[in-house]
Amino acid sequence: MRRTQVQARLNGADVDFLCEPRQSLLEILRDELGLTGTKEGCSNGNCGACSVMLNGRLVNACCVLAVETDGADILTIEGVADGDQLHPLQQAFLEEAALQCGICTPGFIIAAKALLEREPDATEERIRYWLAGNLCRCTGYDKIVKAVQRAGVQMKGSAS
Amino acid sequence: MEAFEYVAPRTLADAYSLLGNGRRVAALAGGTDLIVQLREARRSCDLVLDLKRIPELRVVTIAADGSLQVGAAAPLADVYEIPEVRRRWPALVDAASIIGGTAVQGRASLGGNLCNASPAADSPPALMVMGARLRIGSAAGTRELPVGEFFAGPGQNTLLPGELLLEVIVPPMPAHSAAFYHRFIPRNEMDIAVASAGAWLQVGSDGTIEGARIAIGAVAPTPLMVPAAAQALHGRKAGAEAFALAAQEAASAARPITDMRGSAAQRRHLVGVLARRALERAHQRATEGR
Ligand SMILES: Cc1cc2nc3c(=O)[nH]c(=O)nc-3n(C[C@@H](O)[C@@H](O)[C@H](O)COP(=O)(O)OP(=O)(O)OC[C@H]3O[C@@H](n4cnc5c(N)ncnc54)[C@H](O)[C@@H]3O)c2cc1C
Ligand code: FES
Ligand code: FES
Do the beta carbons of residue A111 and residue A129 sit within 8 Å? Predict the structure, then answer.
């Protein structure tokens, strides 16, 4: 099958790649561009391990064709820290021990960031509903939700 | 995944010209059904026709006549984030905000939810009770039909070859009327309805029911309107007695199956309860602030 050239913004830089129409954004990120922070859990939209931002919206990269992203703006977990400076969410996940195997963590952080940036005062209930599409099979959700709440406080503090 | 070609036309005319020609074309909106079906080889096609670069299929507008016009490929989040939509069509928000999780709602469209024609889809009963209509187009022109006439069976809609769904048109809710939609699932979110019900009620100032519509989901090969439930309500006083009669009609209209999500008997029972509670909530909304 002919490969198509795609140009996009990825974590703030221009990227160019070739892909087959049937390849998902998740496959291209991991196998073509070497960005393995975005994980594959289910490949059917249920687990959220592949969460990325696409043109400002939280999406599952396994349910996006890479060819669709020509001209798009994509953010993955690799674009979340500021150099060596961890994002408040990353820091909070460490401090709250909100991960064990870590497969779900990049997805949770991308999804939680999308929430806190638009709703810094999100309640626990709101956080739980927003993150309902992200599954964790080992840590349990309490620590994850606590980490998100902690990061929310932090992010508000540094914004004002 | 089997190989296919991909095209993202910029105009409807270009899109129509790609339909047919003996090729198996699959329209793509948010891909939350289509991409998964292709990956799991439940479906195959020669060409994926991405509709998202056609501007009119992406816009959500409130028209001069007060109706809400939702481009078929607009993501659900683009619809339910509009404050005016939340205020005037809360039943649409009831349905759109429980379809998958946040990441699904950032991609999935109303158009795709309708075209995929799952008997358990959440948007159809809500749209049916609100009296929504669909605008369908082809190279030959456009036609409109009530959303309830769009479904032919599980996974089957009534689009003809060469046609695309263009727009969902939700009329303004008349004075003293409101709709509500909900479903039963074993968890709080991220699951497919075991049974669902939507209700719309118009209530006069003395509490008499002047108009009603009930629709049920996941209990028949297609979402169903229940005219007998509406008739049972008409002219009665809004309240427990009338709602119980309508709920009975909803349960008897159901033609449920038994599968891993629930037994036929459980579904029939559930859909009655859901219909009654949907009426209570629609009534509450319709009479708020009186
Ligand atoms: C994890 C997960 C959870 C989900 N949970 C729910 C749920 O709780 N409730 C629910 O109702 N659904 C649920 N769904 C399914 C829901 O996401 C889809 O039905 C969605 O609304 C389809 O919209 P889409 O834009 O993604 O469509 P696509 O997948 O792009 O298309 C769906 C179908 O419609 C056709 N199509 C799309 N647009 C048009 C058009 N304009 N004209 C003609 N044909 C067209 C496509 O060819 C395809 O056959 C879930 C899906 C996932 C992955
Ligand atoms: S891998 Fe994409 S949602 Fe599970
Ligand atoms: S830490 Fe293992 S899945 Fe969440």
Answer: no
